[in-house]
Amino acid sequence: MEKRYWKGVEELRNDAEFVRLKNNEFFEEIPVDEVLGKKAESKDATPRRDFLKFLGFGVAAASMAACEAPVRKTIPYLISPENLVPGIPNYYASTFFDGHDYASIVVKTREGRPIKVDGNELSPLTKGGANARVQASVLDLYDSERIKGPIAKGKAASWDTVNKEIKDKLASANTKQAKIRIVSSTIISPTTKKAIESFTTKYPTAKLVTYDAMSQYGIIKAHQLAFGKAALPNYSFDKADVIVSFGADFLNNWIAPIEYSRQYAQTRKLDDGKKTMSKHIQFEAALSLTGSNADNRYKLKASQTGNALLSLYNAVASKAGAATVSAGKTDADAAINSTANDLWNAKGKSLVVCGSNNANDQLIVAAINNMLGNYGATISIARHSNVRQGNDEAMAELLREMNAGEVGVVIFYNANPLYNYPDSTAFTSALNKVEVKISLSDRNDETAVKCDYICPDSHYLESWNDAEPVRNMFSLVQPTIQKLFDTKQSQELFLLWSEAAVTDYHEFLMQNWRQGFLATATGMASIPAWEKVLQEGVWNGEVTESEPAFVGNVNDAASAIAARKSGGLDIVVYEKAGIGNGRHANNPWLQELPDPVSKICWDNYFAIAPSMAKEKGLVQGNIIEVKSGNVTLKGPVLLQPGQAKDTIAVAAGYGRTNSGKAGNKVGMNAYPLLTFSEGTFNFTNSGASLNKTVEADYTLATTQSHHTMMGRAIVKETTLEEYIKDPKAGNEEEKFHSYKGKVSAKELDLWATKDHPGFDRPINAWGMSIDLNACIGCGACVVACTAENNVPVVGKEEIQRSREMHWIRIDRYYTSDMDKEKAHEQGIGKLSMYGYMEEPAENPEVVFQPVMCQHCNHAPCETVCPVAATTHSEDGLNMMAYNRCVGTRYCANNCPYKVRRFNWFKYSDNPQFDYNMNNDYGKMVLNPDVIVRSRGVMEKCSMCVQRIQYGKLEAKKAGHPVKDGAINTACAQTCPTNAITFGDYNDKSSRLVKQSSSERMYHLLEELNVQPSINYLTKVRNTTSKTNNSHKA
Amino acid sequence: MHQKLTNNLLVKCKGLFFMLLILGISLGVKAQDGKALFDANCKSCHAMNDVVIGPALKNVHKKFSAEWLHKWIKNSQALVKAGDKDAVAVFNEFNKMVMPNQNLSDAEIDAVLAYIGKESEQAPVAAAPTSPAPGTVTPEKDNSTLYWVIAIFLILLALAATLNKIKKGLEYAVREKEGIPHPPHLEPKEARSLWISKNKKLIAVVLLLLVVFGSVKGWYALKDIGVYTNYEPEQPIHFSHKLHAGDNKIACLYCHSGADKSRHANIPSASTCMNCHKYVKEGPVYGDKEIKKIYAALDWDGSKYGTNQKPIQWIRVHSLPALAYFNHAQHVTVGKIECQTCHGPVQEMDVVKQFSPLTMGWCINCHRETEVKMDGNGYYDEVHKTLAAKYGKDAKLTVDKIGGLDCARCHY
């Protein structure tokens, strides 16, 4: 019998409706008539044909409509603002300080919105330099995750209610004699301190607790012990001939990196035939940016730092005839003795610094510097630095007070301890015992979400303030935009809550300057003087105090160091160039900036030495578990050449949970690895262990996957010794076999000069020269370029596919132990030789090389473009007409420098790439003079052609030729070390021509004879040993 | 109170200063035409029948002597200070507002007074529109040739049809006469296919011509996509450039103040309009209707701006795509190009329309033909020497010779 299947119970039951529908093509009714707006009775018509007709007419109508001009509105100002011409930028001097970095800046605004931040050249401290975080700070202003108004108990409230309630709570805490605590990161503003003073006067139980996530309390405490003055001294690297650093990353994150980079580069540059440079010796565990730049770098386990310092102390003391102390053995004892010789020879012109946050370590450092006569010469306590004032002990005391229930009100100002306090669980439980918790954070951060009130602070570009980064050196902060949201700057709140006579902070600031503490000393009483300072941004006073004398007890410190126990693996917690302490984790520009050394973005990881990885059977990307004390962290492994043995290095600032959508869940939080011992939080500790997990390997997003130069002269390098003998050392011209015999590359040319004039440009010939001796690889230029040229952020996944969009990159190369001579001597075959060459050395020398479009005058990209979208300009620029580009990518394939970037996607208005170009706030940062590229087109460095055109126009309007220095590219402008020089080759008096005529000048991949407009100056290392010149063929 | 009065006066004086500025621009007028002089110098503050800022001028030549009027127009304050009774009275009546001194010759003043005399006879008449209403201006093309061609074509066609009929009749007659049998009568369909098979070549040629014609037409139609020459949208305010820039000779840069300094020429802010329209409250065509729109936008109550301000949403006429960078200052200040070169005779347009195609070909063409204005600009001193050496002393140094055709001049 034939089986029968029913379509459903309806068929079985033979419903009337089923019978009606069963002959239809589709069982369910298709609402064609509804779509076409027909009435029910005309069901018998042929709706499909009508549908096609409608479709046809619709398409035709749409195409007709597309031919019509779209109506564009143009809405002028109703009342035009003073001093504002649309299309012309205005510049305002201001100051960046976020509790970590200080920079005096100039803010570029267009039509009333800040779009770019640059260094202020008038500042005697930062001298026009800015780092990646300063550059990226303008994007924080437009962060869509900022809180739009005050919040009380999780609900939006008005300022009046919030302020009234808070004032009531403060008053009741005051009557109950409950403690009021303001937890703040370092405040360098004297007027802010005065505002807080007015608060603490009104509420006598109130006290300010200064808390820095990565503090320098060790140095402050050591100077209290050694000189009787709790101050962070100010260092002058420019006055030092010998610089010795024990793990201090002073070019990257240590105290005042922008300032120090400028000073450091000054001693390293070999301009105008200078034949001297400072000698930089670095002892460190993890390979830092500073260590990468050292002349001699020695691996030293973090747990041996104390003993190494004691050894150096003994070596110097024996020369100075002072008493020595007992010191344990370290891995670097031989190097320490030679270092002591170098230091002693440069007495009074040397500098020893140490990155440890341990007061005993720092006391030994102070004692060494004291013996070398560096205080008063390269180090000043009288003109001390203010940029780190965090007091670790006070923070520990606060925890005790909160646990004891003594604290009634706690206010968090620019501090986020629930994220970055090492034992955040203990802090949370202590915080729960506080009745009233107030956060002044600009976002719902880890601490703010636990607070009763959030009173959002204005961004610094919306605020008034002042700053005293170094004793008696001041700068001002002025607003450059109307407040975007309903925020109030915290100083104003302190004044409001303390019911001060003046609650307008601008007024308060002016009063403080004109009548207050500065009036007598500076003549600031007059308005013109105030306005002059406001315009210039900076003002400096004299310091009359004398340097205090050394009274420290070295023996106590030595015995404390000797008492330390070590064992197991060392942990080093460090800060990266972009993310730093993690405060700006939600800034996608910083997340996408590759770490200068590891070249990894959007992540942190456990860095270990390759030899240790081999020992433990680990490869890059393995997920491991690191256990230190009772903290366990899980993350990927990175093989880091140059790292000390048995050391795990991990960056702080990642693993945020409440920073915003870009910064959340990126990497792991390393702050729990910090330990509190000898009165300070230590960035290093020992006794850790690691375990390999069975989890699948992880792909780290990197922008550079090849680490050595494979014996090629990409970065040319020599030693100071050889450079003195022959300035052309390391820059020997290579000759190539040809039918004419051995000739230089310049004599072999594919092109007739008639069509390709090379450098022969009639009017201007723009170009840049990059001094590899000055470049420290910090990455400020990368972010500056991103900000100037609307470079999109592509995110971690796209970078994993090597699709980063940065127009400028900094290549980092490690030296290899293998070279051609060695292979020849040892009889190693070619294939194996290249295999060995790919492996970086265990302690490699490191070089950095910024690479952007080289603007070749015989450009290989131009000849292969089928649509002539990339061509050469009269003034030597390799141009890119985006609208002409059809995206064949032939140009990128034919570019020997790999500087062309393809837009695989439309990165703006695309929810797949939810960064700043995808919301109305973030778009306000875009430079209106540069177009936002669309999908399917190639892009690359334009040598900031918009700035060139602007500068030329300004010169034409003024009726004089373009002055050297009047035009500058974004990368050159921000460079804290002035490594990049932009100029016109046709202007024979320009700095560019001067620098390019140096014997050190060479072009990248010179053998191709593509005649780039960008040139490089060879790197010179101040070492006596012959450099491991891997390019020697 | 006194303070307020002074302030008010100050504001008005400031306004007067601006008026003076605008008047200064038009002082080049020397014609002995009373109306032109009146329009240029007096109209912004005076009308015949109404008090604008100054008094109504109807019959003013009868009220005062010509000698007195001459003195007053040249320097009213001198008269007031001298204590002239009439002068002081007028001065006080109009809130002690100073009439600016007019730099006119006696002959010119006489011409103005004669005009006032003439107008006083005619007045009162409703202010007649001096120009056709906006939107009605359509450029008249000379189409007569086309009409002639069509007419001749039609006559010829009729002629051909008549001749064909006569020919057929004659053929029929001949066949009848000679006894030749008539061709069989064919169904129209068969006749058509017969004709087609006989005339294959003709059809092929006609089809080919049609294809060629269609392609050429289509090509030009495609080239016009996105080109909006003569785009003439209606604006939210019936602002007439003809009245302001043409009749009143207000310089372009007075309102479009960015054109000589910035990338953008700038649509003037409403506050710029108020420099004059605080005082000029009526226009010749729409009366106060359009001017009141400015007041509404600024929430102007006659003495100050209110808080309920609403921006004026003008319709953009000239619009370059975002991928092209254009800088007004480069062309106006450095290139010394007249505004009209690209924007056409704006001073004759009641409603502004797009004059030039604004296509890349149009830009490039101009860059190829226009000489760089190097004289007197220090920027070009060296450039000129270099280029003279390269192209010869007398060569025409056009924009393309200094890189004016480089992609990155406009695209970045």
Structural description of this entry:
With 1033 residues, chain A is of the alpha/beta class. Chain A has five domains: 58 residues; 210 residues, Rossmann fold (3-Layer(aba) Sandwich); 169 residues, Dimethylsulfoxide Reductase, domain 2, CATH 3.40.228.10; 128 residues, Barwin-like endoglucanases, CATH 2.40.40; 305 residues, Alpha-Beta Plaits, CATH 3.30.70. Chain A has 33 helices and 42 strands. In chain A, the strands form 13 sheets. Chain A has a seven-stranded mixed beta sheet with strand order 6-5-17-16-15-7-8, with helices on both faces. A six-stranded mixed beta sheet of chain A has the order 22-24-23-28-21-25. The longest helix of chain A is centred in the first third of the chain and has 20 residues. Chain A is globular, with a radius of gyration of 32 Å. Chain B is mostly helical and 412 residues long. Among the domains of chain B are: 121 residues, Cytochrome Bc1 Complex, Chain D, domain 2 (Orthogonal Bundle); 36 residues; 42 residues; 54 residues, no CATH class. Helix content of chain B is 51%, strand content 0%. In chain B, 19% of the residues are buried. At the A-B interface, strand 1 and helix 31 of A face helix 13, strand 1, helix 15 and helix 18 of B.
Key terms:
heterodimer; A: 1033 residues; alpha/beta; Rossmann fold; Dimethylsulfoxide Reductase, domain 2; 7-stranded mixed sheet; globular; disordered C terminus; B: 412 residues; mainly alpha; elongated; disordered N terminus
Major protein interface: A-B, 46 and 56 residues
CATH fold annotation of the largest domain in chain A: Alpha-Beta Plaits
Total count of strands of chain B: 1
- The percentage of residues in β strands of chain A lies in 15-25%
Shape estimate of chain B: elongated
- Poorly predicted sequence stretches spanning 5 or more consecutive residues of chain B: 1-31, 125-140
Largest sheet of chain B: none
Topology, number of strands of chain A: 42
Helix content, binned percent of chain A: 25-40%
Task: State the CATH topology of the domain at 2-122 in chain B.
Answer: Cytochrome Bc1 Complex, Chain D, domain 2
Low-confidence stretches of chain A: 1026-1033
Supply Rg of chain A: 32 Å
Level-2 CATH architecture of the largest domain in chain A: 2-Layer Sandwich
Look at the structure and name the CATH superfamily of the domain at 2-122 in chain B. Cytochrome c-like domain
Structural class of chain A: alpha/beta
* Proportion in helices of chain B: 40-55%
Biggest β-sheet strands, sense, barrel of chain A: 7 strands, mixed
CATH top-level class of the domain at 2-122 in chain B: Mainly Alpha
Distance between the termini of chain B: 58 Å
Q: Based on the structure given, which CATH architecture of the domain at 2-122 in chain B is correct?
A: Orthogonal Bundle
